[in-house]
Amino acid sequence: MHPMTETLYLSTEIVRPRRDVWAAFADTETRQQWGVPAGDGLVYDHDDFRTGGSARYRCGSPERLEFSAAMSYIRVEAESYVVHTDTVWSGEEVLGTAMITWTFSDVPVGTCVSIVDQVVSFVGQGMIEGSRNGHRIVLEQLGAFLAGPGQIGSGPRDGDSGAP
Fold first, then answer.
1. What's the CA gap between 130 and 50, in Å, rounded?
2. Which of 98, 107, 123, 141 is most buried (CB neighbours < 10 A)?
3. What's the predicted TM-score (pTM) here?
4. Where do the domains of the chain lie, and which CATH numbers do they carry?
5. Which of 83, 41, 39 is nearest to 58 (CA)?
6. How many Å apart are CA 87 and CA 129, to the nearest integer?
7. Distance of alpha carbon 9 from its chain centroid, rounded?
8. Sheet of 157-158: strands edge to edge?
9. pLDDT score at 158
10. Spatial distance between the Cα atoms of 3 and 121, rounded to a whole number of angstroms
11. Tens digits of per-residue pLDDT, 91-137?
12. 31 vs 138: CA distance, rounded Å
């Protein structure tokens, strides 16, 4: 099977200042709270969040954390953007890799968070759909995390059909 590729575009507006949204993104412990779909687990074994830094994490079912991943932070500009690679394995099998850009910009309601994910799947369309759904859920959860209980914080927009 040849690799499959797709560029995913997603964004959301969060009713909080950019510095608050950035703080929730940049802090590894905080990111572990909102950065995984409900019912799944996420553990960072290492996270050197800076330009030239790297991260290693495990994710999947909380009991097994059957997937492992390695990230390289290509460029980190505080409160503005992060560009990183992310490669995911199951055991010794590489499932997919991606170049992901997160941008944070001011909008009238607070902060717009955008993701552009240039994903390559070595195992078929399921990996691409998993990336799309995972990013959509993570954006929702970031907004909910920052809004706090009983408040509305964000609603993701999925623009996979074209540029943001």
1. 26
2. 98
3. 0.89
4. 4-158 (3.30.530.20)
5. 41
6. 16
7. 12
8. 41-47, 54-60, 67-77, 81-90, 93-107, 110-121, 4-14, 157-158
9. 57
10. 6
11. 999 999 999 999 999 999 999 999 999 999 999 999 999 999 999 99
12. 10
- The pLDDT of residue 149: 61
Three-class SS string for the chain?
A: CCCEEEEEEEEEEECCCHHHHHHHHHCHHHHHHHCCCCCCEEEEEEECCCCCCEEEEEEECCCCCCEEEEEEEEEEECCCEEEEEEEEEECCEEEEEEEEEEEEEEECCEEEEEEEEEEEECCCHHHHHHHHHHHHHHHHHHHHHHHCCCCCCCCCEECCCCCC
- Environment class of residue 2 by beta-carbon count within 10 Å: exposed (0-12), middle (13-18) or buried (19+)? exposed
- Using 50 as the pLDDT threshold, list the residues of the chain that sit under it: 150-154, 160-164
Measure CA of the first residue to CA of the last residue in the chain; give whole Å: 30
Residues 142 and 154: their CA atoms lie apart, in Å, by 8
* Amino acid at the residue 120: V
| CA angle in degrees (0–180, nearest 5) for 56-61-62 | 80
